[in-house]
């Protein structure tokens, strides 16, 4: 495999720097090669900040994505976990969207059927506000333990709540005495830098409890690379997986992979596994070796073309701004933060719309746009709505129709 990527910045002494980098996902020595860099991005994109000044001055870090030629894993080698502080003022929930709730409920129902999750013990690692764990416990009369330092109890009013214990901490080996039939972990592994260490810890915690099924859901970097979706790359996400690197991780940590598939318009990747009998033997993979070459090809194409994409987006937005068009962004989550900070868009876009009432009146970290509820648009009357996640297109169209507005809708992934 060729190992020289075009770099966006040339100041970094590449070869010296890279020699230190062993892949945290497979342990291959000096296998990480930098292919994408963005400097000074906010270290948290889901924190709520209440003033423009605080938003602009928010702590920043660098993104240097390295690609492992041995397993296909992608990691921010400049990631500093000391800069991250997860707490209850993180507003990462998607639970206010009906599209997302339907997806969540269908997934819970499918897993309950597939793994016979009735009257069972379930652990969720990184349970957020606990929506998914509560759903699993409600639908299958299960008992649950949820781990998350950002858990907020007052928002959970479910009947199943009495069967669920929430621990406001990170999951670790110290909880290996808690046995479960099903361990799930959604949208969390991408926040963990040393993935092999973490999944190996999980394998040790499961011990000889071989009937435990584990379920992990993460964003799939394949789609991000294919679509040049740089807005899906942000500081909290230090680890990026494709099917081949995710499977390799679980096999190497001593799991047998039961299933590996994409959901939610290929945005998410899911792996289901169980502990193998002998931790020393590695089970055979489901993914063909060709997939590693394919991910390498996508990484190269991303690296070569991303600057053109940046320029095209900036020119489009600035031209509309000069022409007096009012542009708003729909979706005040991490995608908006990454999109705006990576492109350096400030006064060209004044407002970001979000249906989550907890975000109303807050500010986008880094670039400082004010977050407003859809109702605000009745008076503001935008000309263009940039939709950060096309999955919500129909939902957004309906809300705008009810507000009697007809702006041009621009789902970001359609930009060429
Ligand atoms: Zn690797």
Helix content: 25-40%
Bound molecule types: zinc ion
Q: Would you tell me the overall average pLDDT?
A: 88
Cα-to-Cα separation, first versus last residue: 29 Å
Secondary-structure element order, as H and E? HEHEEHEHEEEHEHEHEEHEHEEHEHE
User: Judging by the overall fold, what is the CATH architecture of the domain at 316-414?
Assistant: 3-Layer(aba) Sandwich
Number of strands: 16
Q: Sketch the major β-sheet.
A: 7 strands, mixed
Instruction: Catalogue the unreliable spans.
Output: 1-19
Annotated CATH homologous superfamily of the domain at 316-414:
NAD(P)-binding Rossmann-like Domain
Order of strands, main sheet, comes to 6-5-4-7-8-11-10
Structure description:
Helices cover 29% and strands 21% of the residues. By secondary structure, the chain is an alpha/beta fold. The chain has a domain at 316-414: NAD(P)-binding Rossmann-like Domain (Rossmann fold, 3-Layer(aba) Sandwich). The strands form three sheets. Strands 6-5-4-7-8-11-10 form a seven-stranded mixed sheet, with helices on both faces. The chain has a five-stranded parallel sheet with strand order 14-13-12-15-16. Helix 3 packs across helix 4 (131-140). It is globular, with a radius of gyration of 22 Å. Mean pLDDT is 88; it is low at 1-19. The structure holds zinc ion (ZN). Zinc ion binds at residues 23, 25-26, 28, 31, 68, 70-71, 73. Zinc ion (ZN) is lined by residues 23, 25-26, 28, 31, 68, 70-71, 73.
